[in-house]
Amino acid sequence: MENVIFRRRSIRRFFDKPVEQEKLERILRAGMQAPSAHNNQRWEFIVITEQDKKDAVSKMSPWAGMVANAPVSIVVLGKHNDEELNKWFAQDLGACTENILLQIAEEGLGGCWMGFYPDMDRVQMLKDFFNVPDGVIPFCVISLGYSPDENRYVDRADVSKIHYNKY
Length: 167
Ligand SMILES: Cc1cc2nc3c(=O)[nH]c(=O)nc-3n(C[C@H](O)[C@H](O)[C@H](O)COP(=O)(O)O)c2cc1C
Prior knowledge:
Blueprint: H1 4-7, H2 21-32, E1 43-48, H3 51-58, E2 72-79, H4 83-86, H5 89-106, E3 110-115, H6 120-130, E4 136-145
Antiparallel strand pairs: 1-2, 2-4, 3-4
Helix pairs in contact: 2-5
The structure holds flavin mononucleotide.
Flavin mononucleotide binds next to strand 3.
């Protein structure tokens, strides 16, 4: 039970210490390794490091306060201009987001997923603030950084949720 899948936790407190660019790039590359419907890879990212932008995004959701204090936050966005692929948007971006969270833990950092899509008020605030073009939707925000808190395993396995061959 030692790998990052089991240890990853939502971490919301961060030291005032920058994240190395090579770590950040590996984290983003991990996101781009995710599976996606028809292998469409429609994800894009806005990396936020400027304090005025962190402050603004931290106010766009009641649960996003930690963005103001994280050295880096990533807005995960998805292109959705193909009707056939639209319906898989949330699954593609969810897989991408989880990959990012796992790589954050692998790098010895802490991170937290903040839900924006499908709350369209929050989505619109991000779109307006970053001038995101039509056909691209912000999906979530992930804050990351060095933290006093550790990724640590909690046992959530519940065998009553597993059904073999019939419900
Ligand atoms: C879709 C989604 C949206 C979430 N939104 C927020 C959020 O806005 N703010 C926050 O602090 N945590 C958010 N979380 C983190 C959850 O609260 C967290 O994953 C859950 O409590 C389990 O804890 P763990 O991540 O430490 O295992 C979100 C998680 C998911 C999957």
